Structure formats: C-alpha cells, structure tokens
Amino acid sequence: RRQSILHRFKELAVISERVSSYRGIDIPLDGPDQYSFLHFVTGYLPAQNYEGLLKEIGNKAAILPSTQQKGQQSILAVTTINGRPSLEKILQKAGFQQETLPVVEGKTVDELISEGEKEKEKLSTDLKELDNRLKSIAVEIAMPVAEIEDFVEREYQILDASQKFSRTKNSVLISGWIPTDSLNNVEQRIREITGAKYVIQTSQPDHS
C-alpha cells in the first residue's frame, strides 16, 4: 500500500512537470487533432529567439506565451490546418522544441493541475495515516519480542546454572551462604531466573 502511494506521487509529479509550463492558458487536453480546421502545438524555444519568432510569424499564427524557465520560453502556437507547414518551418528556424501534452478527454491543463494537487494532498494524508499504523504495529510486535528475549535469557541462565551445580533430571541443587540482609534480594533474583519454579530453604549459621 505504501509503495503504491509513493508510485502514484511520482506519476503525478511527472504529469505536473509536463503541463505546469502551460498553466493559465487553459489548453484543452482532448488531443491535438480535436479540431479539424485548427492545428496547435506546444513547446519551448530559447527565450532570446521569442521576439524574432513573433515578427516572422506575423499574422500566420497565434502565439500564446507561458512560463519562462532556465532561458527557455514555453509557448502555445495555433494556426489553421493550411497554415501548419509554414508554422512548423518558422518554429524550426527559431529553435523550437515540441512538447506533447498528455491526452485527458474533457480536461484542460489547469483542471488537470488542480485535480493533481488535490490528489497529492489526499495521498499525503493517507501516507501519514499509514505510517502511524505501521509504527503502532511495530510497537505491538516489539513487546512480544521483548518478552520472548526475556524468557530465553532466563532459560539460558537456568541451563548455565544446571551445568555448574549438583542436579537430577528435573532439578538443580545450589548450596552456599549469603549475608542475611541479602536474602530477599537473592530470592527475588532466583524467582525471576526460574520463573518462580524453585524451593529455597534457609538455616541460621552454626556458631559452634
């Protein structure tokens, strides 16, 4: 799910990059051949060639400028079907590079950009909610893992102790002495290590 959200983010970014230069012109995206009597083309040319292009085009076509970025001027050029060869020749001379816009029936550039921004906002919210759920799951998983690790550690300590002291098949005998005031702490530790599976017997020291 997270990967699909990130993949869609990338798709929207690519679409936005392709059409953002023409924001504000409201170009229809039904395809370049939607009008049988008109020909229009989108693209860019070196900004320094723009004024010369306008002079040479004259009344042969309509040129609508859009954004200018990194020394490149984006434009929309519109002419009649009959005027297409002449327009293409002039554009080529001016260093024009065509950009093909995505075909989205019934939409314009501005509508596509607006819808894309709304979808990105929703995807961003979905991604945050998903990340929060994943964090919660990670915490829930971590707790049982910690309990298992604690259990394994106790069992290891029991096994280690069983190798050092007298034992039968089901028990280990540990004998020795400790300071009286340490008895409660030692018994608590034994209870933790054995999981309360122990018997302890104490006696007072023989002073004789």
The biggest beta sheet is recorded as: 4 strands, antiparallel
Q: Estimate the global geometry from the Cα principal axes.
A: rod-shaped
The N- and C-terminal alpha carbons lie at a distance of: 77 Å
Helix content: 40-55%
Rg estimate, integer Å: 39 Å
**What is the arithmetic mean of pLDDT?**
78
Count every beta strand, where a strand is a DSSP E run of 2 or more residues: 6
Summing up helix and strand content along with how strands pair, one would put the structural category as: alpha+beta
Give the low-confidence spans. Answer: none
Widest sheet: strand ordering: 2-3-1-4
SS field, number of helical segments: 5
Q: Which sequence of SSEs, written as H and E, runs from N to C?
A: HEHEEHEHEEH
- The fraction of residues in strands falls at 15-25%
How would you describe this protein?
- The strands form two sheets. The protein has a four-stranded antiparallel sheet, covered by helices on one side. Strands 5-6 form a two-stranded antiparallel sheet.
- Helix 1 runs antiparallel to helix 4.
- The longest helix has 54 residues, at 109-162.
- The mean pLDDT is 78.
- The chain has 208 residues and is an alpha+beta fold.
- Strand 5 and strand 6 (172-173) form a beta hairpin.
- It is built from five helices and six strands, in the order H-E-H-E-E-H-E-H-E-E-H.
- It starts with a helix and ends in a 14-residue tail after the last helix.
